[in-house]
């Protein structure tokens, strides 16, 4: 055997030469001799193996490796996606809320802290949170409601903000914007400088008193706002908590309905809804006595009738400071109802009103009695009430002056009944 260059020649002692084989020497390795294949029988040389031919033993090995790699890749991607969902779900939802068309302005929590001087001046407190006074950078005064019941998720809050933001009427408090950061839920409303109606219509509150013309305009404003909610917006909205504390007054004493914290939004093709009792004692319609009774917009009509009486008579519908005979306003109205011209006698200080004022007051009291009928079917729609107040229609001549007194307690303040938590479609304005 001899080695020449990179070729190794093997002498076998046979007369015929054997094929030579070239061995490639790897770097840093010593040359190795590869034995040539034995000659085939009968001098037939077998074909050289093709590079595409793979030994059968490598097929299952290769498939197994590919399968393992696939499993590893899928596992890694799944783990990364799961971790993102766990850690960033809130951020994803927050990002989604930014892209809802027609949404009010979105504020950061820090912006509202600055605007309210770290929530320094409280305007009021209700069943769903507190309201604070603030001012934006451009000088716009705002009322910020900080929701304190945190059971509501981001999607429910988004639905709520969308619903409130879609309400556009002069006699409804306007939603300017909102804040949704982690557990913080805040709603930003226009600020109304004269506060709530109850601070003005009752003579024993802060010594304030409104003249008859202003009271009449306030009644019209409330009716217009309710008519929009019941009959003219995209969905029918039953407010469910109409009372003087939820009527706000701007600098010109225009009235705007606020606090949709107990409201129910229903499709326009639905005339009634079955819900548990909610509202404020003293303003609750008789049909609430039925367990899970079928409720319509007429419960708001009843509450409006109570508010109308309180505005006209300048006193609360239940006043414990009054003698027993005048303790309950509806009891007085029921006694005077037998003589319709005598219903005005439930109003105190009649000497302060002119003859024309007295005629309008009598008309208003009759409208209130119409709204307070025990049978919801006998109560008018708010649009009908507006026509009567504007002198286009006459009051129903078949009013029944018999009123239910099952729920006569009406504690002052913001006490309310809500035997079930509000659903996702519930709206929340300042209380």
Describe the structure.
This protein has 431 residues and is α+β, with helices and mostly antiparallel strands. It folds into 2 domains: 105-190, 2-Layer Sandwich (Phosphorylase Kinase, domain 1), CATH 3.30.200; 198-418, Transferase(Phosphotransferase) domain 1 (Transferase(Phosphotransferase), domain 1, Orthogonal Bundle), CATH 1.10.510. Helix content is 31%, strand content 14%. The protein is built from 9 helices and 16 strands. It has helices spanning 58-98, 109-115, 154-165, 198-201, 212-232, 298-313, 329-336, 355-371, 382-389, and strands at residues 2-4, 7-9, 105-106, 122-126, 129-135, 141-147, 175-181, 184-190, 236-238, 247-249, 255-257, 264-266, 273-274, 278-279, 294-295, 417-418. A 6-stranded mixed β-sheet has the order 3-7-8-6-5-4, sandwiched between helices. A two-stranded antiparallel ribbon has the order 1-2. Strand 5 (129-135) and strand 6 form a beta hairpin. The chain is elongated. The N and C termini lie far apart (107 Å). The chain crosses the membrane at residues 58-77.
């Amino acid at each position: 055997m001899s080695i020449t260059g990179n070729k190794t020649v093997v002498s076998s002692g046979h007369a015929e030469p054997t094929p030579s084989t070239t061995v490639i020497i790897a770097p840093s390795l010593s040359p190795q001799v590869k034995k040539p294949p034995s000659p085939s029988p009968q001098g037939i040389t077998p074909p050289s193996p093709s590079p595409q031919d793979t030994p059968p033993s490598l097929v299952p090995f290769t498939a197994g490796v590919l399968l393992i790699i696939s499993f590893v890749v899928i596992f890694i991607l799944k783990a990364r996606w799961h971790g993102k969902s766990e850690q960033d779900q809130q951020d994803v939802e927050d990002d989604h809320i930014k892209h809802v068309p027609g949404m009010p302005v979105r504020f950061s929590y820090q912006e509202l802290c600055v605007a309210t001087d770290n929530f320094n001046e409280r305007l009021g407190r209700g069943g769903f949170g507190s309201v604070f006074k603030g001012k934006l950078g451009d000088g716009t005064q705002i009322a910020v409601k900080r929701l304190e019941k945190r059971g509501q998720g981001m999607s429910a809050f988004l639905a709520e903000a969308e619903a409130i933001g879609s309400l556009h009427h002069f006699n409804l408090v306007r939603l300017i914007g909102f804040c949704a950061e982690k557990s913080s839920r805040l709603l930003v409303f226009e600020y109304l400088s004269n506060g709530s109606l109850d601070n003005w219509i009752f003579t024993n509150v802060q010594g304030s008193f409104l003249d008859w013309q202003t009271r009449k305009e306030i009644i019209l404003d409330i009716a217009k706002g309710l008519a929009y909610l019941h009959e003219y917006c995209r969905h029918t909205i039953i407010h469910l908590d109409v009372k003087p504390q939820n009527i706000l007054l701007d600098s010109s004493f225009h009235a705007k309905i606020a606090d949709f914290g107990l409201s129910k939004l229903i499709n326009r093709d639905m005339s009634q809804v079955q819900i548990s009792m909610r509202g404020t004692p003293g303003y609750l319609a008789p049909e609430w006595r039925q367990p899970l009774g079928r409720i319509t917009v007429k419960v708001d009509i009843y509450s409006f009738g109570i508010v109308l009486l309180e505005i006209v008579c300048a006193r609360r519908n239940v006043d414990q400071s009054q003698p027993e005979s005048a303790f309950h306003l509806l009891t007085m109205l029921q006694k005077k109802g037998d003589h319709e011209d005598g219903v005005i006698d439930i109003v105190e200080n009649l000497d302060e009103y002119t003859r024309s004022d007295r005629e309008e007051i009598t008309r208003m009291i009759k409208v209130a009695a119409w709204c307070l009928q025990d049978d919801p079917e006998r109560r008018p729609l708010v649009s009908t009430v507006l026509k009567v107040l504007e002198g286009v229609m006459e009051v129903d001549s078949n009013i029944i002056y018999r009123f239910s007194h099952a729920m006569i307690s009406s504690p002052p303040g913001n006490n309310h009944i809500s035997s079930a938590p509000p659903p996702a479609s519930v709206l929340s304005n300042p209380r």
